[in-house]
Amino acid sequence: MVSRMDEKDRAKLADMNIDGIGLLQVAAHMGKIEVIRYFVEELGFDVDAGSLCGGSTALGSATLFGEVDTVRYLLAHGYEEVVRLLLSSGARVDIAVAYGTPLHIAVSYGKTGAVKILLDHHADPNSTSGVLGTPILTALHSTKHGLAESDSLECVKLLVKAGADVNYACPNTSLVIATTNGLTDCIKYLLEVHTDPNIPDKQSGRTPIEIAASFGRRDHVEILFPFTSPVKAVINWTVEEIIAHGKSRRSMPKDEARSKINDKKAKLKSLGEKAVKRKDYFGASKIYSEALELDYFDATLYSNRSLCYLQIGEAQKALLDAQRCVELRPDWVKGHYREGGALMLLKEHKKAFEAFLNALKLDPANEEIEKVLWEAVEAMKKHHLETKGFK
């Protein structure tokens, strides 16, 4: 419809409303994230604008209706004053979602203003996300997804100033990630703040200088050289020999390191399954967490850990893992099933019904899923009857 409008009519869209509620607010309270993205990024809607009816912003609408993904998007596109207001009103600064805390989200978009505010309110600069590790690692990883190195570096500096541990390996250190991603200025800064260049990559066993050499980045090898201890595999410790060593490593079978990781992950999975069989769900959750450090994109591990969290009553953690599982494998029935189970424990019966329905669509003959689907329906009916008088 918009594409058929002339420029004059398009300009009026931002002021259009439905009973005093702006289009952006309507999309926000319905959780229509793609529509919101179109309004903001394509049509230039002001995310801070309030509606005519009560002055509510899109963020207010999304928050009121519990649309977490929408809130995350809107916070990432502004709202520094709103962040201050939420925090001053008692909002939990380190509340976690699938991709980490608000601090993880802020650094992933390079929102230094929001990062400063969160750190001023004592956000934990060393909190760990199940997907990308600590906030520093998130800032460095995000350069692979469009974040400018300069923005990443500013976030890293703020985090270090707030006490972030630059040598914490989750699973790898900040210097390993910066070198792998070819971030020259970040490498220089991390060395300035005494990041240890001798801690190797957990997967390949290579130090940052070897990683730089394997990519043929002579400038990075030269930057790292004065700070790095000699590696036994390099007979003559010179820049030239290190680069030659890196070139020879590139010619080695690429599957060798991956094979070792897969073997270790398979062993941990087996240990986790044995722990589940003896109903040691807490122990199994720890084992699956260790396995996830080797592969953050294994949907089965998230599903298995979700089950463990559910069994020990950690419903919110179970839900986060289930949602991550669904994100990684949307056509896998088990992820939706796990999500429904967690939502039932959280008494989010309507959402649980929707999750079980998604699972049943993928496996229509599954009697267990049909059973829990109707349990969700009955729970919804009971809740409605209990609250009917109030409504």
UniProtKB/TrEMBL annotation:
Indicate whether Metal-binding appears among the record's keywords: no
User: Matching Gene3D superfamilies, A to Z?
Assistant: Ankyrin repeat-containing domain (1.25.40.20), Tetratricopeptide repeat domain (1.25.40.10)
Q: Which domain of life is it from?
A: Eukaryota
Supply the PROSITE patterns for this chain.
Answer: ANK_REP_REGION (PS50297), ANK_REPEAT (PS50088), TPR (PS50005)
Identify the stretches annotated as ANK repeats.
Answer: 98-130
Q: Which InterPro entries match?
A: Ankyrin_rpt, Ankyrin_rpt-contain_sf, Cul2-RING_E3_ligase_SR, TPR-like_helical_dom_sf, TPR_rpt
Could you list the residue ranges forming a coiled coil in this record? none
* SMART domains named in the record: ANK (SM00248), TPR (SM00028)
For whether the record's keyword set contains Repeat, the answer is: no
Quote any Pfam family the record assigns: TPR_8
Which keywords does UniProt give here? Answer: ANK repeat, TPR repeat
Q: State what protein this is by name.
A: Uncharacterized protein
Q: Which organism is it from?
A: Leersia perrieri
